[in-house]
Amino acid sequence: MKITAVVGSPRGMRSRTRKLVNFVLAGAEEAGAVVDLIDLADMEIAPCTACESCSLDGTCVFADDFSAAYDRIQDADGLVFASPVYVDNVSGQMKVFIDRLADAMHYQNLAGKYGCSVATTGISGGDAVTGYLNHVFNYLGVTTIGGMSAALGSDTEALDRAEAAARDLGKQLALAVRDRPRYPDQEAEMAENREYFAGIVRANRDWRPDGYERWVREGWIREE
Ligand SMILES: Cc1cc2nc3c(=O)[nH]c(=O)nc-3n(C[C@H](O)[C@H](O)[C@H](O)COP(=O)(O)O)c2cc1C
């Protein structure tokens, strides 16, 4: 079982979000997972330019670090998306990464995985950011078990106080990957999203037959 985290802080090793995520991954590891951490601070990822090339064959025009990060998350059974709060939202780095996942959303390439979200903030906005990241998970067809946010202010001990909850979140994610609990509300939302995405998969059928056939096999599209 593999659990991979994506950290959207630009601060690298100094990032408090990264430190909190390391606790989450430690909890997952204790529960038997092999863990991986993708730090967007180490990567050059260009923002989506809406050229729509990916809709032709799933490939982006930018040959940057996104594809390596994408391979790593595709290889995982469980995902952690984590971001600091920047002006009440995810960091720009995290948003750029999420936008580059548009084709994965349309084709539901990550569907069936489990996820959880993590945010750190100075004072406020953490729950809004974990809520947004969980919403993104559902767009991707990833079932979320929830998330945690920590308002750290300038308190140097606040991270230590969040450690137990973070480790537990990682453990719960690993258990979810193992036991595959059902969440009817999320299943309904994901099914509704797929009805919309099915229009894209159908429209691209002639030049992306493999994607179309996969959707038929999954039962997400009725063959015409
Ligand atoms: C550009 C910027 C915007 C921020 N916006 C907010 C904010 O809206 N609300 C808040 O409480 N903290 C805000 N913060 C503080 C960070 O969310 C907080 O320090 C966070 O723990 C940083 O995480 P990191 O160490 O992983 O980068 C902001 C920090 C920066 C640099």
Structural key phrases:
five-stranded parallel beta sheet, alpha/beta, binds flavin mononucleotide, 16% strand, 48% helix, Rossmann fold, 224 residues
Summarize the helices and strands and which ones pair or pack.
Layout: E1 2-7, H1 16-30, E2 34-39, H2 54-57, H3 66-74, E3 78-84, H4 92-99, H5 102-107, E4 114-121, H6 126-139, E5 143-151, H7 158-179, H8 184-203, H9 209-218
Parallel strand pairs: 1-2, 1-3, 3-4, 4-5
Helix pairs in contact: 1-7
Bound molecules: flavin mononucleotide.
Organism: Methanoculleus formosensis
Cofactor: [4Fe-4S] cluster; FMN
Family: Belongs to the SsuE family. Isf subfamily.
* Major β-sheet annotation: 5 strands, parallel
CATH-defined fold name? Rossmann fold
Overall mean confidence score, pLDDT: 97
Number of helices: 9
SS-derived structural category: alpha/beta
Keywords: Flavoprotein, FMN
Protein name: Flavodoxin family protein
Domain NADPH-dependent FMN reductase-like: 1-155
Pfam family, one: FMN_red
